[in-house]
């Protein structure tokens, strides 16, 4: 009898020990589950608190039509602009196609770009990268998207039915087809019927096809134009010493009001061949100047059209700016 009771008590104890082990195991497992759930919940809450990167909208300046520029005297091409550019219906022949990298979008009608291949100018053996200006006969939208990394994306203002709206992204490469302005001056001007003629270059091609007779530019004109480009670069950087290296002595020691200037941006340069005397160059220059809030200067804020006069003593001396101001009719 006592032996049977002892066996019973022993079994009860073993059962309790097993139950206790199972209980401790369940508790450990439950605690692990609770910990995992807590971590997951924390990640979800943290994700909800992290600000999401958003795309912002930026206003794009309205660009003038070519007809408006002609009326305002803001272009040297009066009388030789292709009819299609002005009326939108005359026949035209696209005579230039190349791969370009978009460097800037000035306004809803003006885009600047560089060729991705080197171009040989007529009468020269060396090749150089060519900067051009595109005029869009149909404008871009006056709103652009700025992504969190600063990428600017522009779209056509006139979408076409059942066709994806094209985009122009600053810094990307496109194959562009257009109409070259006859007798262009300074920087080639290319008319593009609409943004659909900007085809994104997915094949990493690099080529340039254009009328060779339209790329005759004297080395002296290129050198003089470069002086103006450098002058505006240093003006924007507020580097007076470098600006004065590109001016004649009588144009030095001028107060440029750097403290008031936010930025200066060069938009276009065109040479005026008809008014050049030996040893001189005259350029029509369009630039934009913006002042800091509450500041101003003697130059009106906004887009400005000035003439720039350069001269040199002999073919081996540098071109220097000796006068500027006024407009295209001065």
Structure write-up:
- With 330 residues, the protein is α+β, with helices and mostly antiparallel strands.
- The chain folds into three domains: 1-51; 56-214, no CATH class; 219-325, Nuclear Transport Factor 2, Chain: A (Roll), CATH 3.10.450.50.
- 25% of the residues lie in helices and 31% in strands.
- A five-stranded mixed barrel has the order 2-3-4-9-8. A four-stranded antiparallel beta sheet has the order 1-5-6-7, with no helix packed on it. Strands 12-13-14-15 form a four-stranded antiparallel beta sheet, covered by helices on one side.
- The longest helix has 48 residues, at 2-49.
- The radius of gyration is 34 Å and the shape is globular.
- The N and C termini lie far apart (132 Å).
- Residues 273-325 form the DUF4829 domain.
- It holds the Pfam family DUF4829.
- InterPro entries: DUF4829 (IPR032256).
The whole-number mean of residue pLDDT values reads 82
- Beta-strand segment tally: 15
Uncertain runs with pLDDT below 50, 5 residues or more?
none
Helical run tally: 5
Major sheet characteristics = 5 strands, mixed, barrel
Distance between the termini: 132 Å
Structural class: alpha+beta
Shape: globular
Fraction in beta strands: 25-35%
Q: How would you write the strand order of the largest sheet?
A: 2-3-4-9-8
Assembly classification: single chain
Radius of gyration computed on alpha carbons: 34 Å
**Helicity level:** 25-40%
Number of domains: 3
Query: Strand-and-helix sequence, N→C?
Result: HEHHEEEEEEEEEEHHEEEE
């Amino acid at each position: 009898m006592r032996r049977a009771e002892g066996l019973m008590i022993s079994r009860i104890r073993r059962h309790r020990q097993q139950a206790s082990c199972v209980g401790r195991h369940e508790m450990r497992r439950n605690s692990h589950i609770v910990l995992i759930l807590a971590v997951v919940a924390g990640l979800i809450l943290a994700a909800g608190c992290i600000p999401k990167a958003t795309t912002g909208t930026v206003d794009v300046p309205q660009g003038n039509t070519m007809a408006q520029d002609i009326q305002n005297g803001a272009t040297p091409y009066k009388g030789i602009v292709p009819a299609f550019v002005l009326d939108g219906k005359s026949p035209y022949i696209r005579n230039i196609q190349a791969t370009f990298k978009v460097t800037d979008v000035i306004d809803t009608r003006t885009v600047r770009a560089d060729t991705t291949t080197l171009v040989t100018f007529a009468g020269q053996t060396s090749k150089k990268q060519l900067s051009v200006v595109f005029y869009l006969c149909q404008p871009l939208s006056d709103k652009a998207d700025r992504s969190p990394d600063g990428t600017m994306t522009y779209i056509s203002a006139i979408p076409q039915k059942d066709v994806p709206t094209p985009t122009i992204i600053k810094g990307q490469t496109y194959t562009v087809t257009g109409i070259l302005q006859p007798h262009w001056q300074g920087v080639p001007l290319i008319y593009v019927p609409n943004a659909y003629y900007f085809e994104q270059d997915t094949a990493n091609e690099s080529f340039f096809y254009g009328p060779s007779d339209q790329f005759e530019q004297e080395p002296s004109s290129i050198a003089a134009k470069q002086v103006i480009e450098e002058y505006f670069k240093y003006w924007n950087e507020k580097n007076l010493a470098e600006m004065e290296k590109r001016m004649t002595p009588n144009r030095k020691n001028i107060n440029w009001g750097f403290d008031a200037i936010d930025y200066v941006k060069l938009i276009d340069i065109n040479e005026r061949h008809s008014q050049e005397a030996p040893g001189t160059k005259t350029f029509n220059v369009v630039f934009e100047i913006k002042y800091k809030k509450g500041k101003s200067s003697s130059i009106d804020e906004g887009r400005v059209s000035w003439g720039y006069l350069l001269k040199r003593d002999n073919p081996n001396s540098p071109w220097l700016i000796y006068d500027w101001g006024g407009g295209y009719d001065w």
